[in-house]
Amino acid sequence: MQVVVIGGGVVGVSTAYFLADAGHEVVLIERRGNVAEQSSFGNAGIVAPAYAVPWAVPGIPRKFLSYLFKGEAPVQLKPRLEPALWRWIGQWVAECNQPRFHINQQRMQRLALYSRDVLHRLREREYLDYEQTSGFLQLFRTERDLALAQPLLQIALDNGMPHNVVDAEAARAIEPALCADTALAGGLHFADHETGNCSLFTKQLKQAAQAKGVTFHFGAEVKAISARERRVSLHVEDKEFAADAVVVAAGVESAQLLAPLGIQVPLYPVKGYSATVGIKDYEQSPQAAIVDEAYKVAITRMGNRIRIAGLAEFGSRTTDLREAALRTLIKVGEDWFPNAANYGNAQFWCGTRPMLPDGPPLIGATPVKNVYVNIGHGPTGWAMAAGSAKLLADIVSGAAPEIDTEGLSLTRYIH
Ligand SMILES: Cc1cc2nc3c(=O)[nH]c(=O)nc-3n(C[C@H](O)[C@H](O)[C@H](O)COP(=O)(O)OP(=O)(O)OC[C@H]3O[C@@H](n4cnc5c(N)ncnc54)[C@H](O)[C@@H]3O)c2cc1C
Question: What is the pLDDT averaged over residues 286-314?
Fold first, then answer.
């Protein structure tokens, strides 16, 4: 089939690759000048199935409220008169109970574990090298934070993920440069979880996709999709193109493209920040990745640079860099690795997570014939991209998916 993929982020490029691999004739349309220039550009880089958990956690709305009055809080809400925001919050609160959390978490874990396997196969097959590291250490500053990590521990146990609960001394043995002056109650270590440079990966995969025949059109914005009898028609800038099928993988903008087709999805952009800085002293730098659970900020090693990323801002649709957020990132970097870099030289970035209120992404067919989606990966789109793309390609091709697709499709929202 002739298939058009809309969106050149990690999800769209991975989708184009697997569709071409399945024998389709694929065109990818991206409005920017290259791949991975939006959410996939400056993310934390974590590929950790244990961290692929919904944000709709029982009890979290109360914690969320307490954050609203703290300047350094990991979550910020800019109250706006925006119905989509309040609708999203209402749907999210409705998911914050134990039965729903369990269901959503199982769905995300299934996909994240599969995605890791697909990523490994892909990496070997295409000789990809994207500054990947092994090892993921969650840090808890206080005993209270450590106690609150119980659900994370349970997820690791339920899914048979090898892990170690470590005390402060053992955590410092894993990451020897961790600053001794910063309070540390303990950690949770996943030796086989990984990180990698998402943007570098996407650019390498673009080349592999081109070698499989995928055509990339940059600087071309899809304005509308119309369904025809047997084909779909795309309005790109002032031209019209026809294809046998289209896959919408346009990140946070996907909702606007789908709405005129009568497909309503509660995708909301949740803003986050990152700081990237060159390493000054390798001995004093992280070996792999840590997450400071008090601030929900990750510090990852990316080759000869360190990336500090995280924070969540609701209600902000601009690309403004909020000073307080940047200060929080630098504070966390200095707290744990004070001598690793000259943090004053950091390059800052902000991006949005394409978030659905319940958590798992939407992969597969839509009620409109020949229109497919691969959207809504939220805070773990890099970790889930390879698996989501392979799954979507199998669905489009009519091949049997390698995992159970229950709960990963639009039927969650459209019956
Ligand atoms: C601070 C931060 C930290 C994060 N950390 C992690 C992490 O550690 N691990 C992880 O797994 N995930 C992480 N994420 C999430 C991850 O970055 C996203 O889930 C992922 O990048 C989404 O990829 P995407 O391809 O769906 O979207 P994008 O990368 O945004 O790609 C969508 C593309 O579609 C294009 N587009 C949109 N509309 C149109 C149109 N009409 N026509 C043509 N093109 C169009 C856009 O230009 C864009 O390039 C983080 C996100 C943030 C913000």
Answer: 96
